[in-house]
């Protein structure tokens, strides 16, 4: 890892803001509407207070865990996020290498610059593939087959974006892929779409009619585990479990429904509804080891980060993403020690102060 001077993820974010183009910064950093949910995602972690236990032998801390049977060195993965190629020529391949080298896991977005095969090769056995369902199901089916053949360990179906949220920063400064670039899972532009920016065009390919019946369809297409990403209620989590799926609690980084509840606030009711029948993941606003600790204490098996990984990629490619993950792992280890917890399995709701 190159010796990077950043002490924490906020410093990396500030440094990345200096190097990103205005359009890439608007696209990465922005949220929907007034960005109430975007801010709440972070503020929620600060507002939760910890109940540390003392006089526990913390000379050895073990941050390792498993997700869907895959061993992780620490319970942090990379959330699916589009267009890594906006900031680094190696794009998702660099991010995937960093995830593999730190014993993490990466969820590859449908809207990637690099092919599923290239990214899978960079993170053998440590890749999940994120799906948006296309109106043309045969395209989705072909992507599922490719993900399976490339060795993806799970499919992540994102369900909180049947239509694109109103992200005003990118309405003002639309993000564009480099001229001539064809995104491998999106394909060449259809005639007549020239006036649309890349995100709006992608949105026209997706099916806004997506419903639970389609999840049954998807379940029948593959034997891979399916994780439903973007759930925020006990009701939907229970439905996901009834459909044989795992649950990813998320408000899409505050980019879809503004003023939606945070994943952290939704987690207790979801953990209660799931009741151990499926794995639960969480994302949104995680920037500190204590954030990871709190999410795990409330029932998440692992957490995921999107923007912090993108900022690392923008600053130093693969080594930058590794720096992001290393910081989170080291901070989690420290937080566990200061809480008197030596193993991931020991993190429970007793850690959270209820006032
Ligand atoms: C995203 N997110 C996302 N989610 C998804 O399922 N498919 C996608 O292609 C994308 N693309 C995407 C691009 C960018 C630039 C961002 C910031 C986010 C949402 C992502 O997976 C995740 O839910 C949140 O971003 C997590 O919050 P943090 O870690 O960014 O605060």
UniProtKB/TrEMBL annotation:
InterPro entries: Aldolase_TIM, Alpha-hydoxy_acid_DH_FMN, FMN-dep_DH, FMN_HAD, FMN_hydac_DH_AS. It holds the Pfam family FMN_dh. The keyword Mitochondrion does not apply. FMN binds at residues 80-82, 109, 158, 229, 250. It comes from the Bacteria. Belongs to the FMN-dependent alpha-hydroxy acid dehydrogenase family. Its cofactor is FMN. One of its GO terms (molecular function) is isomerase activity. The active site is at residue 252. Keywords: Flavoprotein, FMN, Isomerase, Oxidoreductase. GO terms for cellular component: cytoplasm. Glyoxylate binds at residues 27, 130, 132, 167, 252, 255. Residues 1-355 form the FMN hydroxy acid dehydrogenase domain. This is Alpha-hydroxy-acid oxidizing enzyme. It comes from Deinococcus metalli. The keyword Flavoprotein applies.
